[in-house]
């Protein structure tokens, strides 16, 4: 019997065949999770390799077949069983010529050992599958979550029923490299050091919109200059409307007046509440325009250097739940190339 400490925590052969060498770390996590690591230090706890040898030999009633299954020699199986019997102080097998039979103690012990291995196997399945299904932590902005993502969640649940989204909203960048979230959708130029950043939409264009309640109260805006007399909603730096008016050929615009918002999602809510006209990315306004909660105003859409990007650590690119979300979000965004 080898005395390699790593061998002492080997799990049933079915687990090793199913998951391979990459499962060593996961097995250790299972042992820690269920307190088995602590039990390993208990003098009454026999070596797991000896228990494996006992279970296989008892199932086959053959040292040779047990050895074939566990990829060792019959002599190693015999020695492991002797080690187990010495540790317990009880004979588990009767030996007659080349045949072996379970003693009464062995027959009592076998189902308990088999059940323990089954529990470890089940726990390993659960802890491995939870890494690829279950919760997917997504970090994004309030505007993207409320205007684009939430209206499409029914489709996501139908497409990826095994994944539950945990949506975290805010304007600050989440540190994906430290596991603060699994994936992010961020608004910017897509320059995130050490991360994969993929443009989610084509060139972003901002359009002027307002709630019908506002357009009914004010004189119609038949030309761009008419909007100079409207209440306008600004982002925190108050530059969007100035750039938009300039692109429309209007230079005498005063950006000092009007409500300003740190959060683009709150700015959208204010527009929906009729507090003023707003410049909103067309993709974020699409749903509200379709249902009549917003109306399109005059003016040519203005291209923006910023747009939404799907961001995730390069090391997570092949994780099944990251790939599943990536494929879904590109399909939902109308990008068939990246959705495949």
| H/E element sequence | HHHHHHEEHEHHEEEEHEHEHEHEEEHH
Distance between the termini: 51 Å
Average pLDDT level: 83
Within the largest sheet, what's the order of strands?
Answer: 4-3-5-13-6
- Main β-sheet, in a few words? 5 strands, mixed
Note down, in words, how this protein is organized.
With 340 residues, the chain is of the alpha/beta class. 44% of the residues lie in helices and 17% in strands. The strands form four sheets. The chain has a five-stranded mixed sheet. Strands 7, 10, 11 and 12 form a four-stranded antiparallel sheet that branches. A two-stranded antiparallel sheet has the order 1-2. α11 links the parallel β8 and β9. The longest helix has 26 residues. It is rod-shaped and about 105 Å long.
Which structural traits does this protein have?
single chain; 340 residues; alpha/beta; 5-stranded mixed sheet; 4-stranded antiparallel sheet; 15 helices; disordered N terminus
What's the SSE blueprint?
Layout: H1 13-19, H2 24-33, H3 36-40, H4 48-60, H5 63-70, H6 74-88, E1 93-96, E2 99-102, H7 104-129, E3 134-140, H8 142-149, H9 153-159, E4 163-169, E5 183-188, E6 195-199, E7 205-210, H10 212-217, E8 234-235, H11 240-247, E9 260-261, H12 264-272, E10 278-281, H13 282-290, E11 295-296, E12 302-303, E13 307-313, H14 320-332, H15 336-339
Parallel strand pairs: 3-4, 3-5, 8-9
Antiparallel strand pairs: 1-2, 5-13, 6-13, 7-10, 7-11, 7-12
């Amino acid at each position: 019997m080898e005395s390699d400490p790593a061998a002492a925590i080997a799990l049933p052969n079915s687990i090793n065949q199913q998951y391979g060498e990459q499962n060593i770390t996961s097995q250790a996590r299972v042992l820690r999770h269920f307190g088995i690591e602590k039990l390993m230090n208990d003098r009454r706890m026999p070596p797991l390799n000896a228990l494996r040898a006992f279970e296989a030999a008892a199932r086959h009633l053959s040292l040779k077949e047990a050895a074939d299954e566990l990829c060792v020699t019959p002599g190693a199986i015999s020695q492991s069983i002797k080690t187990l019997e010495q540790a317990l102080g009880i004979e588990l097998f009767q030996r007659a010529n080349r045949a072996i039979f379970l003693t009464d103690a062995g027959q009592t012990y076998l189902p308990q050992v088999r059940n323990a291995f089954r529990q470890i196997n089940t726990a390993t399945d659960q802890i491995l599958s939870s890494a690829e299904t279950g919760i997917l932590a997504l970090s994004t902005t309030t505007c993207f979550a409320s205007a684009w993502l939430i209206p499409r969640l029914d489709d996501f649940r139908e497409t990826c029923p095994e994944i539950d989204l945990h949506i975290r909203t805010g304007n600050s960048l989440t540190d994906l490299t430290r596991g603060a979230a699994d994936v992010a959708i961020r608004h910017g130029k897509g320059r995130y050091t050490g991360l994969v950043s993929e443009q989610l939409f084509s060139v972003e264009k901002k359009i002027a919109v307002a709630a019908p309640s506002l357009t009914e109260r004010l004189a119609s805006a038949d030309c761009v200059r008419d909007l100079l007399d409207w209440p306008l909603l600004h982002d925190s730096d108050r530059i969007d409307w100035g750039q938009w008016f300039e692109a429309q050929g209007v230079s005498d615009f005063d950006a000092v007046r009007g409500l300003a918002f740190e959060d683009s999602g709150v700015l959208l809510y204010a527009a929906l509440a009729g507090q003023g006209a707003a410049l909103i990315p067309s993709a974020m306004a699409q749903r509200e325009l379709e249902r009549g909660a917003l109306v399109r105003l005059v003016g040519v859409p203005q291209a923006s250097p910023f747009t939404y990007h799907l961001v995730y650590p390069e090391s997570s690119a092949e994780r099944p739940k990251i790939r599943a979300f990536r494929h879904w979000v590109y399909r939902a965004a109308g990008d068939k190339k990246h959705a495949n």
